[in-house]
Write a structure and sequence with these properties.
Largest sheet: 7 strands, mixed
Number of domains: 3
Radius of gyration: 28 Å
Structural class: alpha/beta
Number of helices: 28
Oligomer: single chain
Mean pLDDT: 80
Strand content: 5-15%
Number of strands: 9
Length: 653
């Protein structure tokens, strides 16, 4: 690695500009507006966390810019936050630009107050000013600037508005003059802590506060190896007992109170729509109404994806277009032009490229996934998903996780492989391993979920309820057991809800199209590959042998038709491909409702696709991946078989 590429030895003559802020405030957009295209993405040394570095010209001089992972606080509780903190403190002389979302200034100002306490010079950029304006939110920038004692700039990064002003303000960054006084107990703890701490570039007060919020993080650092750890931990414990709340919680509450006072001074609202959204946001997490709203949401989702997507649209595309027009025509064309039986079978046979791979991916999965992505984007854009995390927090507490773990799980509905990467946001290794296991076990990715919604749509309510409860109770049971088995601690649940908002159509369409494009690029090659594998297995009669070998399991224990074996095999390449195979079998009337239900439960709990396994290996190592596989495969088959026995015994369906 050349000297100038390494993010660690950034030139000292070139003071870097460091962008920090909460997740989703447009840091990367500002980064892009400054740097254009000259960008290096690097993993931070010793972690899998990525950060981006680029350069831009200021008065003829080149300056480097670093875009850091989003944080909720500079006291880190996760790998991402730790990297951001390390970048901040390792580039002491840098210019810090804190990016905040104008319409959700409350979150942003919490970080500003921390920067003020650590006495790092910074500029505050209020981004997304256009969205704030639409929502009737007005911020008095000059007043905010004089309260905090730092430059404040308003920007709309997406259109480049205010970027020039920001560039001109770069050299005016200064330390904030704002001081917070905490409650007596905390002030007393700070004073006592200061006597233990060494002299560093940071003020002792700010180090004391960081230690109160998360002692293990700072004390693990080499600067603090000679301080009296026991005394410090005892002091933290005693203070917590005096206050009666966890320290991070009470310090955060006191900071929020200060933030709210500042907001009263600088923000004006004028909009009745916002009031309605706030009310609705309140009801979505209400212990009773919240569940009612959730069931309505799920029902609408089922109508949209299950009935419209998997029913009407699949019918149009698969039956009307492909089965009646495209495939017969292609079959005729291939058979006329290519008189070689082998190639005919390869293109249009039972496991043919056109008749299986292309039909499955374009006619069955695409309409379903398209409608699902559209619906999912609406939920995501409206701010409802984090509220779901709060609703489910209670159930998750029982399995030793907190509501934050719901986020990777919900992302898992998009793509379990991506969700495995996002388990990094969880604070302890125990939680990360647990969620990775549950994702692999029982969270269907969007493509698979969509296809399954389509199959369930035909089965009726009883079946849907059985399927849902089997999957949920399995997840809870396994989560509970994993909580007992995997060593480690769980973390506290402090969660900031973003505001509810009316989703913008352009955003939704954009997200849906991006996801669909990703999906098609990702999926068609794999469907083609999977079909080719099945075709070859079929041609050399190996498929027949595999089916015979698995027959006691598939036809005996699970009581499913033998054709299902193929669907399960390719389900390992991509889960939705397996689900599409089941979908096709059930459409052709080869399975009874009871069999459909059992096969759905098995494929939901079945091992995730190859990509997910590889991702688990990358994040947590081969041993853990093998352990997950060794548990999940047999487990899915056992649960499916038991369900089959119970349903037959009680003669349900």
């Amino acid at each position: 690695m050349h000297h100038h590429d390494s993010p660690n030895n950034i030139h000292t003559d070139n003071v870097p500009v460091v962008l920090i802020g909460n997740p989703n405030v447009g840091k990367s957009v500002i980064f892009g507006a400054l740097t254009g295209r000259h960008v290096i993405i690097a993993n931070y040394p010793g972690t899998t966390v990525e950060f981006t570095q680029g350069t831009f010209n200021l008065n003829g001089k080149s300056r480097s810019v670093i875009d850091t992972p989003g944080i909720h606080s500079i006291v880190p509780f996760s790998d991402d936050e730790r990297v951001t903190r390390d970048i901040l403190f390792s580039n002491k002389s840098s210019t810090i630009i804190q990016v905040a979302d104008t319409k959700n200034l409350r979150r942003g100002l919490l970080i500003s107050l921390e920067l003020a306490e650590v006495a790092l010079p910074f500029i505050l950029t209020l981004n997304m000013a256009d969205e704030a304006k639409i929502r009737g939110i007005k911020v008095d920038i000059d007043k905010l600037s004089s309260i905090l004692g730092i430059p404040v700039v308003s920007t709309v990064a997406t259109s480049g508005e205010g970027i020039q002003t920001l560039v001109h303000a770069m050299d005016t960054a200064r330390t904030s003059t704002y001081k917070i006084t905490y409650s007596d107990e905390i002030e007393e703890a700070i004073t006592q802590l200061e006597t233990y701490l060494p002299q560093t570039t940071l003020s002792r007060r700010s180090m004391a506060l960081m230690i109160l919020v998360n002692p293990s993080d700072l004390l693990g650092h080499k600067t603090f190896k000679d301080v009296d750890h026991t005394a410090i931990y005892n002091l933290c414990r005693d203070t917590k007992e005096k206050i009666g709340h966890p320290l991070p919680y009470s310090i955060n509450r006191q900071r929020l109170k200060v933030v709210d006072d500042i907001l009263k001074n600088v923000v004006q609202h004028s909009s009745s729509r916002r009031f309605f959204l706030e009310e609705f946001g309140y009801w979505t997490v209400h212990p009773v109404a919240g569940w009612a709203i959730l069931s309505v949401m799920l029902y609408v989702l089922y109508l949209f994806v299950g009935v419209l997507g998997a029913g009407t649209l699949v019918d149009l595309l698969e039956v009307q277009l492909f089965e009646n027009i495209v495939n017969p025509w292609l079959t005729w064309g291939v058979e006329t032009l290519i008189p070689i039986k082998f190639i005919q079978d390869f293109l249009v046979g039972d496991y043919g490229m056109f008749t299986m791979a292309i039909t499955y991916s374009l006619a069955i999965v695409l309409p379903i996934v398209g409608t699902f992505f559209f619906a999912f984007s609406i939920l995501e854009d409206s701010g409802y998903l984090p509220r779901l995390a709060v609703m489910l927090n209670r159930a998750f507490q029982w399995i030793g996780l907190n509501g934050k773990a719901v986020l990777p799980m919900i992302l898992g509905l998009g793509c379990t492989t991506m969700a495995t990467v996002t388990t990094r946001i969880l604070e302890t290794r125990k939680e990360r391993l647990q969620v990775t296991l549950l994702l692999a076990l029982g969270v269907p990715c969007s493509a698979q979920l969509g296809v399954m919604l389509g199959m369930i749509a035909d089965l009726g309510t009883t079946a849907t309820v059985i399927w849902g409860s089997v999957v949920m109770s399995t997840l809870l049971a396994v989560g509970y057991l994993a909580n007992q088995v995997i060593p480690g601690q769980k973390s506290d649940f402090i969660f900031e809800l973003p505001p509810m908002r009316v989703p913008s159509l352009s955003n939704i369409l954009m997200k849906t199209l991006v996801r669909l494009e990703w999906y098609l690029k990702e999926v068609i090659p794999i469907f083609v590959l999977g079909t080719a594998i099945l075709f070859i297995l079929d041609k050399i009669s190996l498929l027949y042998f595999i089916e015979q070998a698995l027959a006691p399991l598939i036809t005996g224990w699970l009581n499913l038709p033998i054709e299902v074996t193929g669907a399960f095999l390719i389900g390992f390449l991509r889960r939705d491909y397996g689900a599409a195979g089941l979908f096709a079998l059930s459409r052709d009337g080869l399975m009874s409702p009871l069999q459909i239900l059992v096969s759905l439960v098995v494929i939901t709990l079945f091992m995730p696709c190859v990509a997910n396994v590889l991702m688990i290996v990358k994040e947590y190592g081969v041993k853990f991946a093998i352990a997950v596989a060794a548990f999940v495969f047999p487990f899915a088959i056992v649960v499916g078989g038991l369900l089959n026995l119970v349903l037959r015994y009680f003669n349900i369906m």
